[in-house]
């Protein structure tokens, strides 16, 4: 599986990242070299191995539905790049 | 003996014996930071006012006859990817410049609750991606032992600050060696506890199935002290386990009779420096002399660890870092022409080269057609 320029452009679209032509060329090289390195994993037979996501078996951990105060609105809004009263401002989305 | 050269447990007992005040200890380290950090580059934020205020409160408690349990008034410096209310949390990235944490991470709540003092926020590789600290968007950190050398990473400043006596204790984070490797480079003790031991609530996520908070100090007892004061189950991080937290400082005995220690042969292969090998051999001798049974063992899948790490951590990072979009917090590009363009421009301007490289790699391996070939197979290898 070799990464092409088309792949880089497709993945950068998914990642919401834009690159110059030179950066794209570098990425093709970078990605191919990492993917070439990880190819050694194909030596391993993992057909009968179960997937784990946590070293401890934890499933469906429930907690009480307790009402707690929310974070202070002003401390959250003070981090917004653009705001109006209690709203975060973004450019118009619907035409 | 200079105060800043004392270890955390020594400072704790001096405070307890009323030989020094909490405020004096905090001031000593803040002065030390002023004197040396220009050369080291470890601190991105110095919490002078907060630290002194907090120290005064603790001194008042002592004056009322209270004994400070837990951290006992000792300062701790925090990697800049762990949320401390009212302080910055940049992850050493331009995308989070100007952001102020509106809440405390669980580990910070515990440090405050256990009488610790927050000294400031520490430099790192951007979003914890790197192993030299050269990926910080703000400034580089040097190794205090030799300024031409790197301190390691990604928690390079957490190790360098302890080695340079700019704090007795620090918190780092580890996804694939980011606490232990810089601790080794800076000749201090770094502990990466087992996944599930410490809450990650309030810690900026990188690879969620691997991330863990770690402690750094100048000896094992100091690491034990800090670890036992931040560990435990947390209903805000469902991967934490319900296993009681012991007093780890009390388990540091010299008697290791009945303990079996495995030395994986794979770790002693090609590329191991002679000096490192000698040091490990000396450590093994100490363990043997203390009564432990030391045996060679084999972890045959070790050679696949790095490749597996690259796939899993990058895939998870590409998803975790999707939240940095320039909308609710963090950098928003001034050049954007519409809403979607805010995402593209803010992220492209805000993230550094290595972070973008890993997001691209992660998105590629998770994209249609490659998910099973890469990500799922790697999870199976971890299972093995």
Give the CATH level 1 class of the domain at 5-43 in chain A.
Mainly Alpha
The largest beta-sheet of chain B arranges its strands as 1-3-2-4-6-5
Could you spell the SSE succession of chain A in H and E letters?
A: HHHEE
Which spans of chain B of ≥5 residues are poorly predicted at pLDDT below 50?
none
The number of helices of chain A is 3
Q: How big is the Rg of chain A?
A: 23 Å
Structural class of chain A, please? mainly alpha
Catalytic activity (chain A): L-aspartyl-tRNA(Asn) + L-glutamine + ATP + H2O = L-asparaginyl-tRNA(Asn) + L-glutamate + ADP + phosphate + 2 H(+); L-glutamyl-tRNA(Gln) + L-glutamine + ATP + H2O = L-glutaminyl-tRNA(Gln) + L-glutamate + ADP + phosphate + H(+)
GO molecular function (chain A): ATP binding; glutaminyl-tRNA synthase (glutamine-hydrolyzing) activity; transferase activity
Keywords (chain A): ATP-binding, Ligase, Nucleotide-binding, Protein biosynthesis, Transferase
GO biological process, one term (chain A): regulation of translational fidelity
Structure at a glance:
The complex is a heterodimer of chains A (95) and B (384). Chain A is 36% helix and 4% strand.
Task: Outline the structure in words.
The complex is a heterodimer of chains A (95) and B (384). In chain A, 36% of the residues lie in helices and 4% in strands. With 95 residues, chain A is mainly alpha-helical. Chain A has a domain at 5-43: Histone, subunit A (Orthogonal Bundle). In chain A, a hairpin with a 2-residue loop joins strand 1 (83-84) and strand 2. Chain A is flat, with a radius of gyration of 23 Å. Chain B has a 6-stranded mixed beta sheet with strand order 1-3-2-4-6-5, with helices on both faces. In chain B, helix 2 (22-40) packs antiparallel against helix 3, helix 9 packs across helix 11 (353-366) and helix 9 packs across helix 12. The longest helix of chain B is centred in the N-terminal third of the chain and has 19 residues, at 22-40. The model of chain B has no long low-confidence stretch (mean pLDDT 95). The chains are: A mainly alpha (95), B alpha/beta (384). Chains A and B meet through helix 1 and helix 2 of A and helix 9, helix 10, helix 11 and helix 12 of B.
